[in-house]
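ARCHIVE CARD
Drawer: 12
Card no.: 0347
Subject: one protein chain, sequence and derived structure
Cross-reference: see card 0346
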Amino acid sequence: MTIANRDPITTVLAAIKEDLGIDAAYSHFTNGHAYPHLIYIGAGQSQLLADGTAYWRGPTYQVELYFTRKDEAVEAAVEDRFLAGGWNYSKSDDAYIEDEGVYVIFYDLS
């Protein structure tokens, strides 16, 4: 799959829900939600530029994986779905949110 024909982010997140049972919401859940879960938000646009021409442009997203227990198999499965949908990603370290007692990993998808 090339960047020109990657799956919409909502399709990838629906596959994660179907395959892994992990819910996702844009920006936030309106009511508390079970862990693990995903939050995603638009993070601008990436472009493929050369010789003053934009050959491709598309949205970028930040996807946040919230969890209470480290599960590398779940992380790998989520990452596999990103790649299968044609999305490249970078991944942060685990970050602990003390006020909520949960961990989060940030993925930047482009």
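Annotation on reverse: The CA atoms of residues 36 and 67 lie 4 Å apart. Residues 3-109 form a domain with the STM4215-like fold (CATH 3.30.2000.30).
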